[in-house]
Amino acid sequence: MSLSRLRIALRSDLVKVTPSSSVVAKIWEPCTREVNTSSAQYAAVSQHNTKPDWNRAVSEAEKIVGYPTSFLSLRWVLSDEIANVALHLRKLVGSNHPLLKTAKNLIYNGKNNMQAWGLIVLLVSKAAGHSPEIPDMEQDKAAGVLHSQRALAEVTEMIRTSHLVHKGLVNMNSRRPIEEPDNMMFGNKIALLSGDYLLANSCTELANLRNQELVELMSSAVRDLAEAEFLGERDEQNNPLPSRPLPVDQREPAADWDCLTSPLPMAGVAGCARREWVARHVLAAGALLGKSCSAALKLAGHEPALQNKGYLFGCHLALAWQAFLDLEAFTGPEPTSFSLVGAPLAFTLEARPELYSYIEAGRKSVHDVDYHALYEAITAGNGIEQTKALQREHISRACDVLDSFPNCDARTALTNIIVAMHP
Questions:
Q1: Could you give the C-alpha distances from 407 to 62, 193, 221, 314, 414, in angstroms and in order?
Q2: Contact of 235 with 366, CB cutoff 8 Å
Q3: Phi-psi label, residue 48: left if phi above 0, alpha if psi -120 to 50, beta otherwise
Q4: For the CA atoms of the chain, what is the radius of gyration?
Q5: How many other C-beta atoms lie within 10 A of the C-beta of residue 45?
Q6: Which segments does the entry list as coiled coil (predicted)?
Q7: In what helix (H) or strand (E) does residue 307 lie, and over which residues does it extend?
Q8: 3 state DSSP class of 131
Q9: SS3 per-residue string spanning 337-401
Q10: How far apart are the first and last CA of the chain?
Q11: What pLDDT shows up at residue 53?
């Protein structure tokens, strides 16, 4: 099956339905300085006070690294196994299985497009350059990156995609009645096997790079993704719920993270809005992107100090990205639902702990939560402004890390992407 035929088939179906502890402290601790949103890196890409458009920023960045990275993973997707999955997806059209939404996100690009992760890894790779000792045969001179770095970008996308596919499983043992149980069970089988296939292929590709330290680093990122699913409480369908806010005098200071491959310390995280939000999204997103950027610099032969900066950049970018997504629900008409572990609600619950009674109503299912009451409380309080400040902070820190890289088109493209997310 050709690439174009597979994409048309999917569209027609789906349209129907650390380093040292001091480095880690820079992620955990709140920023005490004022964030300057008109810094040199912003001015360089924001001529005439015009903020870069997201789609244009991504499109220009893709040209810099050689070709649209949204199709990086299709080398595996075009295999017979996944082509058969596309045919089976037709049986799920009309059902409400989460796998359909995940598949649509793989095809239709947008600001929350998961496929941009490989693009970020390649841009960081090109911005940093590589050691002159690396043989010419290992270099993609046209794109300015190594063949191994391009393979790593594909691995990053596949790990991310497999995780999202696995998250779409429906709990068939829920006490709530399941609509169309046969379709849900079939969808679960497809999601489980598809996610396993993608993860297995990513592990094979990672092993082909023949770098033991790289394998250990990326394996720890997979561990972090799994650990994110066990942070805090969940409803019966494994939808995350925020922890009960702690009184100010009971909140613990941030703990150190001794090693990039060590588990993130969870002591004192639950009940502290900022720390819980950071921990949840570092595990679920930042660790994979940060460690992928660090691994790309390792492949290029850079010193550990620059590898650490790559890790920090990936983490801060992922956190800024997540804050942007959390804010989207509050930029238009009132939504029917929104993330219960998003930053706006986390800050609102911390300011008004009595609102946690609405969260307790959703322990069986998040559909039992009174979203309207929570939405009114969020818009009436400072949660949205605190989230914007949180996003600006991580944007500023990501730009600060970019200052460590040489001034080039890849660095400018990264800055354009960052500025396009600015609130």
A1: 18, 44, 29, 18, 11
A2: yes
A3: left
A4: 21
A5: 19
A6: none
A7: helix 304-328
A8: coil
A9: CCCCCCHHHHHHHHHCHHHHHHHHCCCCCHHHCCHHHHHHHHHHCCHHHHHHHHHHHHHHHHHHH
A10: 42
A11: 77
Q: pTM of this prediction? A: 0.82
Contact 315, 287 (CB under 8 A): yes
Lookup: tokens for 303? 């010193």
d(CA 63, CA 413): 10
Any idea of the CA torsion for 389, 112, 286, 193, to the nearest 10 degrees? 150
Tokens encoding 82: 């996944």
User: How far is the C-alpha of 202 from the C-alpha of 162, rounded, in Å?
Assistant: 9
211 inside domain? yes
CB atoms within 10 A of CB 182: 10
Output the six-digit token pair for 376: 């009114």
What span, in angstroms and rounded, lies between the C-alpha atoms of 340 and 378? 11
305 backbone dihedrals φ, ψ, rounded to 5°:
-60, -45
Rounded distance, CA 97 to CA 180, Å? 10
- The residue segments making up the domain with residue 141 are 18-33+40-251+262-420
Give CA 177 to chain center in angstroms. Answer: 32
pLDDT at residue 241 in the model? 92
Q: Identity (one letter) of the amino acid at 373?
A: A
Looking at residue 95, the DSSP 8-state letter turns out to be B
- 217 lies in a domain? yes
The confidence score (pLDDT) of residue 102 equals 72
Q: What is the CATH number of the domain that holds 89?
A: 1.10.600.10
The structural domain count of the chain equals: 1
- 383: Cβ contacts below 8 Å, ≥ 6 apart: 343, 344, 345, 346, 347, 348, 351
Strand positions, DSSP E, 125-179: 139-140, 145-146
d(CA 396, CA 162) in angstroms, rounded, equals: 31
Q: Quick one: CA dihedral 52, 58, 60, 64, positive or negative? A: positive
Among 244, 241, 273, CA closest to 363: 241
Q: What is the pLDDT of residue 238?
A: 81
Give the per-residue pLDDT at 19: 40
Q: How far apart are CA 166 and CA 348, in angstroms?
A: 31
Residue 292 lies in a domain: yes
User: Which residues does the chain have with pLDDT short of 70?
Assistant: 1-52, 67-96, 103-115, 174-179, 252-261, 423
Residue 5 falls inside a structural domain: no
